Each structure stands twice: as C-alpha cells, then as structure tokens.
Amino acid sequence: MFRNSISHVILVFLIAAGICTDASTQTLYERKNVIIDLGVLDKRPIQLVDPFIDWDSAWTKAQSLLSNLTLEDKVDVVTGIGWAVGPCIGNIKAKPDIGFQGLCLQDSPTGVRFADLVSAFPAAINVGATFDKLLMFRQGLLMGREERGKGVQVTLGPCVNIMRAPEGGRAWEAYGPDPVLASFAAQLTIQGIQSQGVIATVKHFVLNEQEHKRTAQSSQVGQRALYEVYLRPFKASVDAGVGAVMCSYNLVNGTYACENPALYKILKDELGFRGFVMTDWWAAHSGAPTANAGVDMMMPGSATIATTESFWGPNLVSDVKNGAVPETRLDDMVTRILATWIKFSQDDGFPEVNFHSFSPSLGKHVDVQAHHKVYIREVGAASAVLVKNNRTLPLSLSNATYKTIAVIGEDAFGPSNGLNSCADHGCVDGTVAQGWGSGTTYFPYIVAPVDGIKAKADPHNLSVVSTSSASLAPSIATMADIAIVFVFANSGEEYITVDRNDLHLWHDGDALVKSVADVQKTIVVIHSPGPVLVPWIHHPNITAVVFAGMPGQETGNAIADVMFGDVNPSGRLPYTVAASPNDYPAHVERDASEAHYTEGILVDYRWFEARNITPVFPYGHGLSYTTFAYSNLTVKPPSAERKSYRVSVNVTNTGTRAGHEVVQLYLALPMWTCQAEGCAKELRDFNRVHVRPNQTVTVTMHLYKDDLAMWDVGRGRWVVAQGVYEVFVGASSADVRARGKFAL
C-alpha cells in the first residue's frame, strides 16, 4: 500500500498539523505483535500503460527550461489567466520562448464539458457498478481520445471521494463508499486517459465528501481512517502515474486543504507524487501560504468568480522578491507543471483547442465521438443492477405473455425543453442520465427509456402504452399486461442545489410506484446518484427492480437490452441500500462547522456488518438471469516465485443462459486489530468473468502486502498484524460462498 516508512520528523509534523488525532488509540498496536517488514510479500503490482518518456527524463528536460524563464514568466506558468477569459474553464498562458503552448484544463468525468460533438459517458458510479476492470480502462481510454481530439491537455477527473454520506451531492461522480473499488477504478481510468497523452487529475484531495458548507466546513478525521479509507484511492492514483491532483475546498482537521502542508508532505514526500497540484476553482484562501504548503497551480487564477484579482500573479512575484515564498519553491512548482507536460509528449504536436466553453460560435465543431456510443451502451447495460426478480425478467419478445407493456413516469421520457436546456443539467427535464454540476457533459442526443423499449417491442408487434403523468398512471397500467415504472432521484454540485435532502425518490416516486403496483404487475427502474429508500419493495405486485444509476446518452437502449434479455445483467451495487436512513453510519452535516468522521474505517457495508444491521440490499449485490455455484476454494501461501497469497475458486454456471459473475474477495484482519466501533471484512479484489451454461471457470485473485496492511497510529506507519486472517469469496458482501484462512 503506502510506503512502509515515514520519518519521525514527518510524523511529528503531522501530529502538530492536526492530521494525527487518534490519541486514544496510539498505543493500541504497540501492545501487540506486528510485522513491520513482511519481505516475503510484494506490493500489489500495477501493469502501467505508459508509452511516454520516464518521469526522471521529463524532470531533467523541464529543469533545463527554467533558465529561460524570468520570474514573471514562472508566475505565469503557475497562475491561471482567469475565469471565462480563454476557451477552456482553466487556461495557462503560453511561453513561446521555451516552446510551451500553455495548457487547457477542462471538466468533466463524463466527457468534455461545454463542448459540442462529444459523447456523454456513463457516470463513474455506473462504471463502479460494472466491477469490470477492462471497462474501467476503456472508459478512460475513450474519454482520453475525445479530450485529446478537442485539444484538452488536462482533464479534471477522475473523482475518487468516498461516498461517506449516501446523500452526498457529487457521489455520482465517484465510485461509491469502498476505497478498494475506487482505487482499482481510478488506476484503470487514469491509465486509459493518459495513454492518449492527456493528463488526468485525481480529485478532490481530500475529505470532500459533501457539498453543504464545502468551503467552510472542516472534516475531522482520525489517522487510521484517513490512510486506510480516504487517502487510499489517491495513493492508487499516484501509483498509476497520475499527472495532476486537485486540492479540495474544505478544511482538514482545521486547516484548508489547499494550504495544509501536512497533506502535501504525505502526497509528495511519502507517496512520491511527481506531477503538479492545482487548486479547485477559487479554493485558495491565500497567496504565500498556499504556495508554501505545496500547491503548484492556482485555478482559475482569480481569487473569486467576481474579480480579476489573484492571490498569485503579481502578488506571487512580490512574495518571491520579498522572501515570503522561496524562489526554489516557485522553481519546483514550474518544474512539476512543465515536467508533466513533457512527460505526456504534449510538447510534440498536441492538437490545438477547437472549442470554446464560453463562446460556442468560436469553436471549430470537430466531431470526436467516433463509435463510442457502442461502449456507452455496453456500460449502461453492464452497470444495471437487478436487485429483485420474481421470474419476470427478461421480457420475452417471442411469446404472448405480455402483449402490451405500459411505460410510466417522467423519467421514462426525453427532455421536453430540448437537449441541454439547463446549465450544467441543473434541472429535471426528462430521464436522469447524468447528475448536475461541473461533472456534466452536453448530450449529443439521448435515447429515452420509452424509445429504447419501443425499438425492441415494435418489430415483434408488442404494444407499448405510456404516460409521464402520475395521475394517469393507474389507468394506463390497467391497459397493459405489465407496467414498467421509471422513477428517480438526482443530485449535484453546491452551486446548484447542494446534496440530496434525503434518500427518498423525487417527485413522489414512492406514491407513483405504489399506485401502479396496486393495479398491475410492476417492474421498477431507478435512476439515481446513489442509494434510495425502497419502502414498497415487498409489495406483491412489484416483481422486479433495477438500479440503473446514471448511464449517459444511451440510457434507453441500455435498459432495454437488459429488460429483453439481450444482455444478461451483471451489475453490482457499489453501495448498500438500507431499510432506514438511520442505518447508515454517516450523513451530510448540513449546518455544523465540523464534520466528525466518528465511524472511522467502518464506511457503508463495514458498518452494517460490524453493527449487525440487515440491509435491504447489501453492497455488491446483483442478480443474473442464470445461477452460479462456487466450489474448491484454495488459499496458497507466497513462494519465491509468487510473492502473494493466491486465492482461487471454481465458478460454475448452473443455469441455462450464459452470463457474467462478479466474484468478490473480502478479507478480515486479525480480531485484535478491530477499532472500538467494531470489526468487519473489507473488499480486497474482484473479477468479472463470463461463464457459459454448465461451464466451470477457475477465478484467481491475489492478496499482497498492501492488502494485509493496516495503519498503526502509534508507530505512524503501515504494519502487518500477526494473527489469523479470514478470506471470504462470494457474490456480495453478505453472500459469502466460500471461506478460508491463513495465519501470520
């Protein structure tokens, strides 16, 4: 996991800065036997996709350019030119004397924001729901192609903030509450993006888990939770070679994240990050303290959206001249930016920007979509999570069981006011295929669910009746043989309407579901940024339920592929669906000046297990149109050739349809490592495999040193505990099919 050593100086620094706050548990592990350096085990390897020059060479070349830059030039390289000044949402001025063309920085994690002729990709929460490592990489690769095609040099994603609070507004932009799923997804997405020569930006560093009071609230977190949960995806991103990191708006243990030197000691010194750190837009609160803390680039340059004045710019020139910021610090800032630009060969024929975020008519209208809609449709279907099915799905096109299908709900239809009618999708107008805010992308088109269903039904002479009206829903339902009700919740970024108020469906969705189910057999499809409450789940007429997330432009085709059996569903919940909001360990702190992470490492399903709370649907749950059996689990110890524990299990398709099974590996550390709040197993790996009927495949996963390690607060370092480790392999966090153990 993280490097196995941290100097005493850094540890003292962290304590002084407020990062180490677990004083009550600092001696817990000192009373137990731990293995500081387990040499027989390797760290989890990463197969880097990196066709470019190495970082050392890029740094050397960047340093050679410094002598050709004046002090004012250097400050230009680290300071954005301002909001709505250039074509991109963030712009760095060119320096022709050194061949530097400047930089275009642009959202979003779903595609190129504010651009025409681009694709609207599935949200990250959907990518996480696939539990498919290849699809994670392909999402990054195809987005990287489109970003490069538009001239974007730095894309502002992926987002890896943890879904600590299920109502979190930007949860849809990330991968859910589990840090291991987020780590795999981030690594693979980053490698896909950067394989195209586009610099990826992992964000928001760190502990930006809600939108309420995001610029004023302090996230108060203990050291073990910080390292094991919230920093873990950032560490994984650094290991994957990410080029940029974005610091967040919030405070961390009392100090703004963008001027918190303890965080950058961790990021740059301990984790070995070689790229540059930028502020989130207007997240800086000072000049010299922000630079001295470790931030390398200020975005968008101006101090606020309402001014052209900057904390840096001419003020940074003065700070360097008067010694408030050492010029060596400025040189490091510039070197990091130029080295990253060089590292990804952007100094050699990178396309010019051909769109304009603020004046679209100035764009050159370059179409970069290619055939990406095929992938978008595939992920939309692969991320659909079938959570309940009483032999209703798949719907048959070849028999007369259902001659007429009712499609009901405003979420089943396309926008009534035209595509992209609301800025950053900050309204509800038709089906929800993205959230809102800076993470959005213009839809080139959108296939509404009702249209996707009709496209399947019409050639087979099946009738589709439909309505978006809740009052007409029961009567329309009675005209059909089965009803499909589309309901939704939505959320997004602070500047629109912050986090979700609660976990209920929007626009009286629960009442709509019940009114239809009272008169007809009903399938429910939910588009949402995260978990919702499902109080109607046991209604006898509700025979199937699908969580569809936010699937992007092909949403209607993707759900129809699953409904009619062209795709056997394999999506898995990347979060827990609870019976009550009170079952979750944390919620959005709406009015407090501090958010206390008192649940520690027990986020989401870990809390449910530790507290013996039964959810409606557990983390990792998802049904298929076939069935799978697990057998012959083996756990083989490390060897001289293979420095990992090898966990293998046989998976047999015992049904009649081919399908994908998502095999999940969880690990429980020795009991004595539990924190006061309780103990739970934790996801460590997963593998999505295709299995034909009656076929048996062997699925092999590995446990490395970083999978066994825990953060020892007393020692201020990663250690491996002595004791018995339990291995759990299954189809969800609660559906364990095989168990094993080993001792250290």
Automatic annotation (TrEMBL):
Q: Which residues form the Fibronectin type III-like domain?
A: 661-733
The record's annotation in PROSITE patterns points to: GLYCOSYL_HYDROL_F3
UniProt signal peptide: 1-25
Enzyme category, top tier:
hydrolase
Q: What Pfam families does the annotation carry?
A: Fn3-like (PF14310), Glyco_hydro_3 (PF00933), Glyco_hydro_3_C (PF01915)
Per the record, the domain of life is Eukaryota
The pathway to which it is assigned is: Glycan metabolism; cellulose degradation
The record, for Gene3D superfamilies, names: Glycoside hydrolase family 3 C-terminal domain (3.40.50.1700), Glycoside hydrolase, family 3, N-terminal domain (3.20.20.300), Immunoglobulins (2.60.40.10)
Q: Which reaction does it catalyse?
A: Hydrolysis of terminal, non-reducing beta-D-glucosyl residues with release of beta-D-glucose
Q: EC no.?
A: 3.2.1.21
Q: Output the SUPFAM superfamilies linked to this UniProt entry.
A: (Trans)glycosidases, Beta-D-glucan exohydrolase, C-terminal domain
State the Gene Ontology terms under molecular function.
Answer: beta-glucosidase activity
Q: Which UniProt keywords apply?
A: Carbohydrate metabolism, Cellulose degradation, Glycosidase, Hydrolase, Polysaccharide degradation, Signal
GO aspect biological process, one term: cellulose catabolic process
Membership in a protein family:
Belongs to the glycosyl hydrolase 3 family.
**Protein name in UniProt:** beta-glucosidase
Originating species: Gonapodya prolifera (strain JEL478) (Monoblepharis prolifera)
Organism lineage: Eukaryota, Fungi, Fungi incertae sedis, Chytridiomycota, Chytridiomycota incertae sedis
